[in-house]
User: Fold this.
Amino acid sequence: MSTDLRVSFYGAGQVSGNAAAILRGRAGYDVLGPYARDERDAALRSGADVVVIATTSFLRDVAGDVETAVGAGSNVITTAEEAAYPWANDAEIADRLDAAARAAGVTVLGTGLNPGFAFDALVLTVCGICPEVRGLRVDRMVDLSGFGSTVLRRIGVGYTPAEFAEGTRNGSITGHIGFPQSIRVVAGALGVAIERIDRELEPLFAEEPLQATSLAVEPGETAGFRQRYAALAGGSVWFEAVFTGHVAPGAAGLEPRDEIAVDATPPVRVVTAPGMNPQSGSAAIVANSVRRVAAAAPGWTTVADLPPAFPS
Assistant:
């Protein structure tokens, strides 16, 4: 009798395609899909050991799909950034789906590279060598050129200054999503009570024509952005998360890199250069999370509750 894990992928984008290819190259997996949006039932009601849902960034938009897969008896991994810690967005939805997963004896996890690793799981691992943590700063500079045009437009690339200002005001431009979720995962694990999280989003404009894989940017339009989240605890900033994204980093004098700085005794500083690739990194995290999710306790879990992800 086969002991392969059956894994169903819902969402036909880069993450699903790349993660499915990783698992198809390994023994011990029976991969279904990736399935497109019009194949929802085949993907979510497959009864697979694990269903990967990679369709959206937003908790409300993915909640029904998670509920359907859980109802079919499947563990779930979703790349929706807001699902990395769903209580930060909607406690009612989070509690309902957590209860459904517990009742079904399955696990739900929101993960990817960011959130899911760069600003949370890796940060907690680095904190493991510290006797105490007084504060944290995580700084990422990411090459956005490999993202599709829909994602680039949603996060804020390809706009005039007036369009960018209006988009951030009305919510159609979001910047990268998931920082409050990562911050609360880390704070919860370290026993820190967050009082509030402040946010800034600053556009970065092209000085020359630039070409991403899926989008052309003209001079004077947004080629990227700089984002800062500051989480306060005890009246001062405890966790500062800074994310800079650009479709042509070299043209702007930027270099992809990741840095974690821990205010501890002694202080700790970890730098990854070049930075973690958002496309291959996200797919690998998803593929490497399948077995740890299948083995986890029932309910909606976070990366702080699981062993590290690694190829298996």
